[in-house]
């Protein structure tokens, strides 16, 4: 009984701490952000990605962007793949005086002109939870999802009605090759229709969606443990990476049966990896050990640099599509952090060092539970979307005065 009471007290104390931290963040947010929107969703989303196109309505002071999210429901509720419409002020890349901000629920902090908001534009019935959803780079209307049964479902979302009329699930194509569910999913930017996926049984599948074949083009067996993430290389169409619960990162060439590199430098499961958009040799990995490792593919015996500031496991990370040296990470510690490896080794005052290492550019503290996934907006610099476990979708942009320092 005493143990249960102690646990209840600890949970209540932690919740009180989280709420107090959120109040402090909300109070200071107008001085730190050019944009911050916090939008409640009916169910948690494990996945988020900006679609690449934006609309600019004539005569309006805002532009319209779209996000891919999905549901993680309970009690046999129908799951859905969803497209959210996000209205952003046109001048979102211009710093403004904090006095020009206003706060409004549930949107959060936006410009006094061109008020921002989020609404669900398309709902498509989905079989089970949407573990991961990603669009094809060459055809952004084509979206792949990883289901809890291990199937990969392909949707052409513009062919589906904006609201389902019944409970039928009708993907445009089902890809069958995995026996277990997974989260690893990446489209090739070099080869039209090529998709790599990794499951919780250590199996990797390469698909060619353009052929409409339900079977994988190739398969690889990384291990017998969970694969957590996969990523195609952005310069070499045959190269991709995988990582997982065996604490290994593997670099694969589709022309060879065994990995080109097998890297083990983390002290915990590895949950995410990403290849740089500008430098063909750079990639990063995030782990249960709370560390992010930066690697040079020409020498993978040890990391080029290790980034440390998160207080819990790293769940997602993405290189900036606009700056070679910048990436963002999310964690179970409720934080998103923007890093600039060009600042590594920069001299700091003792006061600056208390806030973190010099390469830590910004900490987003607006979430109150673990941050499952995040993504950079391709059209607007430093605008990021992030989703947390507590039914919240956020869109935010750090203040220009921070990244222009």
Automatic annotation (TrEMBL):
Location in the cell: Nucleus
Region annotated Disordered, chain positions: 92-114
Start-end of each WD repeat: 175-217, 307-340
SMART domains for the chain: WD40
Any single Pfam family the record assigns to this protein: WD40
Record's compositionally biased regions (Basic and acidic residues): 92-103
Cellular component per GO, a single term: nucleus
Main localization category: nucleus
UniProt KW keywords: Chromatin regulator, Nucleus, Repeat, WD repeat
All residue ranges annotated as the Histone-binding protein RBBP4-like N-terminal domain in the record: 20-90
One of the record's GO molecular function terms: histone binding
Family annotation (SUPFAM superfamilies): WD40 repeat-like (SSF50978)
Record GO biological process: chromatin remodeling; regulation of DNA-templated transcription
Identification of the protein by name: Histone-binding protein RBBP4-like N-terminal domain-containing protein
Organism: Paramecium tetraurelia
């Amino acid at each position: 009984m005493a143990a249960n009471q102690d646990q209840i007290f600890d949970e209540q104390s932690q919740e009180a701490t989280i709420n107090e931290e959120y109040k402090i963040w909300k109070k200071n947010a107008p001085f730190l952000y050019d944009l911050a929107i916090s939008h409640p969703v009916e169910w948690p989303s494990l996945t988020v990605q900006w679609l690449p196109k934006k609309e600019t309505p004539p005569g309006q002071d805002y532009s319209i962007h779209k996000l891919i999210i999905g549901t993680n429901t309970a009690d046999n509720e129908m799951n859905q793949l969803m497209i959210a419409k996000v209205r952003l002020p046109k001048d979102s890349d211009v710093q403004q005086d904090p006095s020009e901000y206003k706060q409004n629920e549930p949107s959060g902090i936006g410009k006094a002109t061109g008020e921002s908001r989020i609404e669900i534009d398309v709902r498509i019935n989905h079989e089970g939870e949407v573990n991961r959803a990603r669009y094809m780079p060459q055809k952004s209307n084509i979206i792949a999802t990883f289901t809890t049964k291990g199937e990969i479902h392909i949707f052409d979302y513009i062919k589906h009605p904006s609201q389902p009329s019944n409970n039928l699930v009708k993907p445009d194509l089902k890809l069958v090759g995995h026996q277990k569910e997974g989260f690893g999913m990446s489209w090739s930017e070099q080869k039209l229709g090529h998709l790599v996926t990794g499951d919780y049984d250590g199996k990797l599948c390469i698909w060619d969606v353009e052929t409409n074949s339900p079977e994988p083009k190739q398969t690889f067996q990384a291990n017998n443990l969970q694969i957590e993430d996969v990523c195609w290389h952005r310069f070499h169409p045959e190269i991709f990476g995988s990582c997982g619960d065996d604490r290994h990162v593997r670099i694969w060439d589709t022309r060879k049966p065994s990995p080109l590199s097998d890297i083990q430098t983390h002290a915990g499961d590895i949950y995410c990896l990403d290849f740089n958009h500008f430098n063909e040799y750079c990639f990063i990995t995030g782990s249960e050990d709370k560390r992010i490792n930066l690697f040079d593919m020409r020498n993978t015996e040890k990391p080029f640099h290790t980034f440390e500031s998160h207080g819990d496991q790293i769940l997602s990370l993405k290189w900036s599509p606009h700056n070679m040296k910048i990436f963002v990470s999310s964690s179970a510690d409720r934080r998103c952090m923007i890093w600039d490896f060009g600042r590594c080794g920069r001299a700091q005052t003792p006061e600056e060092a208390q806030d973190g290492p010099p390469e830590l550019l910004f900490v987003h503290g607006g979430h109150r539970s673990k941050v499952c996934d995040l993504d950079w907006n391709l059209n607007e610099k430093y605008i990021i979307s992030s989703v947390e476990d507590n039914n919240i979708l956020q869109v935010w942009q750090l203040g220009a005065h921070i990244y222009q320092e």
